[in-house]
Design goal:
The chain is an all-alpha fold and 286 residues long. 80% of the residues lie in helices and 0% in strands. 30% of the residues are buried.
């Protein structure tokens, strides 16, 4: 009897804790969003002088003149922004796929060949550190076509997290498990597919989430510098709005580009949870 009472009390406490955690999960973002909107209004209506307030229109102006206007003149309204966003999203997705293929292949080779890791790692760090603006003339001279140029920018910006996290995961497999595979005289391919890659999955998905966000940034950056052939991505659209001082459209395009990056990041987080959530347990202190 007492055990059943204790079990009921435990279930009630766990349900109350779950409800409290769910409430805090929604309350925290709501409070931060309200503070963000308040600061936005403060900056646009109080802090900025009147002659500069067109640079940062208030939130209700962004809604009424940016989000709620479907099409109004050349490149104005939500429709041209969405079309540009779709073009950038395609570049980001294709570039991310190429980045995953190239990055994971490099990481696997680096994990299996020590000399290859030492020979390749400094150049990967250099690519990560090099400013894309400085490489723009070289990219333009070596590659024809704005689409290929933009894809290369995505790969250059997004490849390092995939390589570094995948390599770390592949090299972090348990030593005793390696010894067990050696005892059974397994092939290198079996060791890779049955031990190293499953052990590295949490790290791989961390790299994928980071690179997914960077792929969107790379697509936007590529739009700024490579827009030949009549292709206008969201980055080029943002540059047009900046040059013409169209504040509401500019903020709308920036918000939608940010939401694209957030969506891609969350999608890969959801995939990671589905793939590794059943056996990989993350812990968090109280």
């Amino acid at each position: 009897m007492s055990s059943s009472v204790e079990s009921t009390a435990t279930n009630e406490n766990s349900s109350e804790t779950s409800i409290r955690f769910r409430f805090s999960d929604y309350l925290g973002p709501a409070v931060v969003f309200a503070v963000f909107i308040g600061l936005w209004y403060l900056l646009s209506n109080v802090v900025l002088p009147k002659q500069k307030r067109f640079l940062l229109p208030s939130p209700h102006r962004v809604l009424t003149e940016g989000f709620f206007v479907w099409h109004s003149g050349t490149r104005r309204g939500l429709y041209p922004i969405l079309m540009s966003l779709w073009d950038s999203a395609k570049i980001a997705l294709i570039g991310l796929i190429l980045t995953i293929i190239i990055g994971m292949s490099l990481a696997i080779l680096m994990s299996s060949r020590r000399w290859f890791e030492r020979a390749t790692w400094p150049y990967l760090v250099a690519v990560q550190s090099a400013p894309i603006l400085a490489l723009t003339p070289l990219i333009r001279a070596l590659i024809d076509g704005s689409t290929k140029q933009r894809l290369l920018v995505v790969v250059l910006i997004a490849i390092f997290p995939i390589v570094s996290n995948t390599l770390f995961g592949l090299l972090s497999a348990d030593k005793s498990q390696h010894e067990l595979f050696t005892l059974h005289n397994t092939s290198r391919w079996t060791r890779l597919t049955k031990l190293q890659i499953p052990s590295a999955l949490p790290n791989i998905f961390v790299g994928l989430r980071i690179s997914a966000g960077l792929a969107v940034i790379g697509a936007v950056v590529g739009d700024f510098y490579f827009r030949e052939g009549g292709v206008v991505g969201i980055g080029a659209q943002i540059d047009v709005y900046r040059a013409r001082l169209w504040g509401p459209e500019l903020i709308t395009a920036i918000i939608l580009a940010s939401l694209l990056g957030l969506t891609v990041f969350l999608v890969f987080g959801w995939i990671a949870k589905k793939v590794t959530g059943k056996w990989h347990i993350s812990t968090r202190g109280n």
